[in-house]
Amino acid sequence: MSLKITVIGTGYLGATHAAAMAEMGFEVLGLDVVPEKIEMLRRGEVPLYEPGLGDLLRRHVAGIEGSTGRLRFTQDWAEAGAFGDVHFICVNTPQKHGEYACDMSYVDSAVGSLAPHLAGPALVVGKSTVPVGSADRLARTLAALAPAGEDAELAWNPEFLREGFAVRDTLHPDRIVVGVRSERAEKLLREVYATPIAEGSPFVVTDFPTAELVKTSANSFLATKISFINAMAEVCEAADGDVAKLAEAIGYDDRIGRKFLRAGIGFGGGCLPKDIRAFMARAGELGADQALTFLREIDSINMRQRGRMVELTRQALGGGPFLGKRIAVLGATFKPDSDDVRDSPALNVAGQIHLQGGQVTVYDPKGMDNARRLFPTLGYAGSALEAVRGADAVLHLTEWQEFRELDPAELGEAAAVRLVLDGRNALDAELWRRAGWTYRAMGRPTA
Ligand code: UDX
Questions:
Q1: Does residue 196 have a pLDDT over 80?
Q2: Which family does the similarity line name (predicted)?
Q3: Is there a smaller number of Cβ atoms within 10 Å at the N or the C end of the chain?
Q4: Domains of the chain from N-terminus onward
Q5: Nearest atom of ligand 1 to the alpha carbon of 259
């Protein structure tokens, strides 16, 4: 008999995981506590922008013409408890307001709400990013609350998907990591992933704390790589070097690698910034805070890039206040191929210039609604060309493909001044310069 899967939480992690499990042939029940999300998903609509996710969902959501019908959604914990052999916890773990620590309330409430409905054998699998030690604590909660007693077990299976690549990363993961305490749990998880998903993916079996730490240390390493290259960008600027060439050259060394070495306004989003902060907070609780003091520097290098971008813009405009200057901002999301504006470096830079008197007009291919909600006082335009019209400077702050395909000559006709500042080191500098633009970027020589 094929396993039945429930997925608790239908954000970009849960919705993608649920659809991927249905794609692998399992019967899947997704649960969310937000009724609007459930209604949308039942219609095959995705409550967020994630390339390919809509198509994957519609292939499986029950009631949609031509679908396999293997994927359903509910708000009912009892239904979920009775349905699943394996229950994946995919709720978010944001940063606590005003603190570094991670807010575990959604995970705690998911396990607490599900457990009383687990009457028979069940495996509850945490996928959310949590402070090390959480799985052990949640296992005890489960044992205390589940009528099934020891037959209801916990496992940890961190998720490494990137926004914008969620479908690809879920269907073809680099590795599958499981933290388990029994052979039964390992066997069940091997069965779940004994599908094309696991083909060619290393399957790492370990204990709870290691599984939890794999996720936080992987994200810390990625954050470190980005802040490292941004620190090099600062030195390059001081020494008149070129950080893009430097990154290319050091990246040819396999031990370093070329990925995640793009200098610019730094990392944002719902994961890297809060994960490194939560990691520091947890290490402090464990008495190991000294081991992670370097992450404080990684965080501060990252945050500094936003202010440096503002200063680069000011200098390029001749110094002095922004008052009366029209600034076009291309990009609002924290990265391309996402509509996520959480902790977006682009909006932070736009907001700083606006607060200093600049007249800012933002355009983003997918993030406009979310940006407007978060920063209602900024100006917004319906296209890049419209944003650039009459601008004294154009800031490229999120590297959407659409921006790389812009015609600098056409934009040059619309702008008041041909000055472009590339906060992502992603535009073709020569192309823009040939069209008469002054091109500036962080960590790059001025001409
Ligand atoms: C990250 C991890 O990559 C993923 O494995 C984990 O599961 C969740 O956190 P995500 O937040 O989707 O994924 O974004 P990612 O692609 O890692 O980019 C994070 C930020 O770093 C973005 O703001 C991006 O613009 C920035 N970045 C990335 C750089 O500034 N330079 C780079 O070279 C790469």
A1: no
A2: Belongs to the UDP-glucose/GDP-mannose dehydrogenase family.
A3: N
A4: 4-206 (3.40.50.720), 207-447 (3.40.50.720)
A5: 33
